[in-house]
Structures are given as structure tokens and as C-alpha cells.
Amino acid sequence: MKRLPGCDRTTHRAETAIFGALAAAAVVLVSIAVADSVRFASNREAIVAMLEQGTIARTQYVASATSTNRAPTNAPAVQPCNSGGKVPARATVSAPES
Q1: Residue 37 belongs to what domain range?
Q2: Alpha helices, DSSP H only, in 43-54?
Q3: What is the pTM of this model?
Q4: Total number of domains constituting the chain
Q5: Of the four listed, 45, 52, 76, 88, which is most buried by Cβ atoms within 10 Å?
């Protein structure tokens, strides 16, 4: 009767160490995501208000544009959304009737 080959101790330890490191990285990433979601849930109204005003996007855009050493392009500047805090109506498209 032939048996399947087994792993030696060094291979088993190396595999255990690698998968343990991957599990630790996964735990860290999940805990960061949970911490960010808790932070968002506690400051939801303030974050939504800032996003609706467009202040975060404009400051990040300006900061990233001044911190790079790339030549300017002819791309238009990002304009803030001036919807007055209202959500625009959704456009509905209906299929042609046959």
C-alpha cells in the first residue's frame, strides 16, 4: 500500500508562519475598516454636509495639484456641486414600445 508523501517540519512551520502573517494582515485591515465605519457612523451628518458642500473635494484637488511637479494640462478644473443640498431627480428612460 502506497502512502502519500508528508511534509517535513520546516515546511510545515514555514507554511504556518506565512498563513499566520496573512491572517494577521487580514485582521488589521478588517479592524481599520471597522474603525472607519464607526467614525463615519458617529460623524455622519457632519461628513455628509461637508461632502454636499464640496469643500473636501476642492481642498484635496488644490493640494494635490500644487504638490506635484507635473506640467499643467488643458483639462477643466473640477467645479463644486451647487445643488443647494438637494438631490437631483433621476432621469428615467423607457424602452420603446413595439
Answers
A1: 28-68
A2: 44-53
A3: 0.43
A4: 1
A5: 52
